[in-house]
Design goal:
By secondary structure, the chain is mainly beta. Helix content is about 0%, strand content about 45%. The chain is built from one helix and 22 strands. Strand 10 and strand 11 form a beta hairpin.
Length: about 350
């Protein structure tokens, strides 16, 4: 954390709630003396550039600026501004995600979006296909949030589709799309899954279509669940293997279903199998990935972990468990018996 006087393009501005969660994030893009040009998206998803004075802790913007979400750096509402310096050696990529922004009164108008699948509010499935309509043929991408965790979704020809991994109980699904003309569209559904709670689950998603990334879970008995061995002796399962992009891939083990939970460490790894768009002249694209791990779901000892990384090399010939190299990443080791 740094003081406001040290704002520069290698810092970020986080307006944090008391819980530490960021309600709004801004990025300084240039500095001229004490004037700092800041980039953000406002609460309707519209990109904004505004200038602040880093020489003062409080910037008194006029009413028009405040109307357009030009925030002064003081405690407004229930948030407090914090300023953080970034280590440039750790930056892999930067993206601006507005999929959690409200769609009501969106800049330029609202794109009608609706879920058409599933049709029922309750399911006995853990992995579910979702689909719907997007009333804007020029929209080609969007985001799908599953209980707040974001993943990509295929959008095209006026429709969206994707797969999601549900938790036991109620699940909130939210799809958001952005049009090239500044319009936004969102739709939300609540789905209840009657599946038993999991003791361990690991869900992999990634942000490139046309790419195949694989999830591997090695259990304490040294047996690995992966796409060529989807069910283990103790009951661990890889219940979905996505080969075209975005994911998900999901491993789970459930004592409620009668699985044997062997004590010890469960090692979660990911492998970049193939970029389907790679050619002899075009190398594999870097693929950012995200793994959500839940231990002891729905119990007082439940733990959730979120891990992100990027793989820059694919290698379909190096996919056996225990492989190593730049196409591999070890994400985490989890132990369901640990507090």
């Amino acid at each position: 954390e740094v003081p406001v006087t040290q704002l520069d393009p290698l810092t970020v501005i986080a307006h944090e709630r008391e819980s530490g969660e960021s309600a709004h994030v801004e990025i300084p893009v240039s500095v001229n003396g004490d004037s700092v040009v800041v980039y953000s998206k406002d609460n309707q998803g519209k990109p904004r550039l505004h200038t602040v004075d880093r020489g003062r802790a409080v910037n008194f913007f006029g009413p028009v600026q405040l109307r357009y979400n030009f925030r002064p750096f003081y405690d407004y509402g229930q948030t407090t501004p914090k300023f953080y310096r970034i280590d440039p050696s750790r930056i892999v990529s930067i993206s601006v995600d507005s999929s959690a922004c409200p769609c009501e009164w969106a800049f330029g108008g609202v794109i009608p979006v609706a879920f058409t699948q599933p049709t029922d509010a309750t399911t006995d499935q853990r992995v579910l296909t979702v689909a719907g309509t997007v009333d804007a043929p020029d929209v080609t991408g969007g985001n799908l949030r599953v209980n707040g965790s974001v993943q990509g979704v295929t959008v095209g020809a006026g429709a969206f589709s994707g797969q999601v991994v549900l938790s036991a109980g109620d699940n909130t699904l939210r799809v958001a799309v952005d049009g090239p003309d500044g319009r936004r569209g969102c739709a939300e559904r609540t789905i209840q899954s009657t599946t038993p709670k999991t003791t361990i689950s690991a869900t992999l998603t990634w942000s490139l279509s046309g790419a195949d990334v694989d999830l591997y879970t090695t259990q304490p008995d040294n047996e690995t669940a992966w796409y060529s061995h989807v069910a283990t002796t103790i009951g661990g399962r890889l219940d979905v293997d996505n080969t075209q992009g975005f994911g998900p891939e999901n491993y789970f083990l459930s004592s409620e279903e009668g699985d044997t939970v062997v004590p010890g460490a469960y090692t979660i790894r990911v492998h970049y199998y193939s970029d389907h768009l790679k050619t002899q002249d075009t190398p594999a694209r870097a693929v950012p990935y995200r793994v959500v791990i839940i231990v002891n779901e729905g119990t007082p000892s439940e733990k959730r972990e979120f891990h992100e990384g990027t793989l820059t090399v694919d290698n379909s010939g190096n996919s056996s468990p225990g492989g190593s190299g730049p196409d591999w990443a070890t994400v985490a080791e989890v132990n369901p018996a640990s507090p």
